[in-house]
Amino acid sequence: MTTYPWQHVARSGRHSLATLCRSPLAEVSGALGDLGTLLPLMAALALQGSISLSSTLVFSGLFNMATGLWFGIPLPVQPMKAIAAAAIAERASLRDTVAAGAIVSSAVLILAVTGLLRRLAEVVPTPVVKGIQLGAGLSLVISAGGNSLLGGLGWVARPSVLDNRLWALAAFVGLLLTQRMAPVSSSSSSSTRALFLPFALVVFLIGILFALIDHHHHPSHLMPHFDIWTPRIYLPHWLSSDAWAMAIAQLPLTTLNSVVAVSALAEELFSPSALSALSLSSSTLTPATSVTAFGCSVGAMNLIGCWFGAMPVCHGAGGLAAQYRFGARSGASVILLGAAKLLFGLFLGETLLDLLRAFPRSLLGVLVLAAGLELASAGATLNEGGDVSYSATQKRERWTVMLMTAACLLAFKNDGIGFVAGLLCHASYRLADALEARRSRRNRLRRPGHDESSALLAS
What is the value of pTM for the model shown? Predict the structure, then answer.
């Protein structure tokens, strides 16, 4: 039966609304789960003029709302990390930064509409995809301990009494205490749901309060005030060597982690059996989780936003895992987040810069840590589920492929190298299987009764 786009959007909207009414705090908390990735990168890029903060808020908000309605899952809209990191390090111009995002998106869009992305997802072994997720998760954990977040904190007064290791420790204890407080239970009992604490929402509100207090002690910082957004057109610097260098570094990350890996994770988290376990009817919604759909989404977002100075964005397995970890179970979470971004971008815009800069790194670091752990945990299901039963040797080989992928990704800080290393490791095992099968066939032919000369002597 053919489903028209407006019918799919309507069904997705009903599903999101029902989930929001069922667990409003969980959806709001889940919407904030990816802030640990978004806030520091967006603020750093905006402060040095590599993007327009107001345009980024407006367009990423619109993209959040559109993807929430279409996909029906808490699909994140997050920065392209390789481009963001390079732009921050090199203090790239706005025209170079948006050009890099548009170049990557053009390549991904071409791969998606030609079906090459789908073919890639079909042929990439599951252990390699899981290895990318594991490596990306551990990368987030490592970045949480970096100097820009938790690693640069002191115990009491560095950088301030409201942003230090003590607050990070308190947030971490809170994270541990809420590990088993599931936002949506398979049980319908109200007592089970009453245990849920919207951790990300609480941390975000405390962070905003601390940032406002910090503003009070620094008169030079501007408080957010009404400043209506005025669209401005920017021409991307298409021929910039810096833009192409950033794009080439980003392309493997976007293709593998933002399309292939996020598709695999979405299918795992929102399959009919998973929805049933969450007491959500799988007949209510069949989420669109194909790599082609995700690839087209990434392409469309940046080819629109780049003309207005918006930050290059993509989807990501880490962001999806983070929002799921903190309670999001439908598109309602990202629709709410998108609406908030849109309002902030339209009416506050660039005046939010100092507030973003003052958000405590101690709290952001714990959010990033939790997101990384959630994504890395996807590797635990490598040999579970499905109709295939693996031998002990096969399980060990699959774990080795996954770990090889993750280890090389971490060692070289490059998804592409991890991907190739995982494929080579997988290929070496398949080659060994083929050689072993060939050797076995030869041995069978040489056995008495199978050899031609033995048959003649026997006669």
Answer: 0.76
Instruction: Judge whether 425 lies within some domain.
Output: yes
16 and 330 Cβ atoms separated by less than 8 Å: yes
- Residues 402, 258, single domain; the answer is no
CA–CA separation, 37 vs 53, rounded Å? 15
The domain in which residue 439 lies consists of 393-447
Among the listed ranges 95-99, 370-374, 454-458, which one has the minimum average pLDDT value?
A: 454-458
Q: Domain for residue 452, yes or no?
A: no
Q: What is the pLDDT of residue 2?
A: 63
When divided into structural domains, the chain yields a total of 2
CA distances (Å), 353 to each of 190, 289, 297, 441, in order? 41, 35, 28, 69
* 189 or 161, greater pLDDT: 161
Q: What is the mean pLDDT of residues 190-213?
A: 74
Question: Residue 186's pLDDT is what?
Answer: 40
Q: Are residues 155 and 276 in the same domain?
A: yes
- Are residues 406 and 319 part of one domain? no
Same domain, 318 and 174: yes
The reply to whether 190 falls in a domain is no
For residue 283, the model assigns a pLDDT of: 44
- Residues 22-70 have pLDDT tens digits of 888 889 888 888 887 788 788 888 888 899 999 999 999 999 999 999 9
Q: Which of 39, 48, 132 is nearest to 86 (CA)?
A: 48
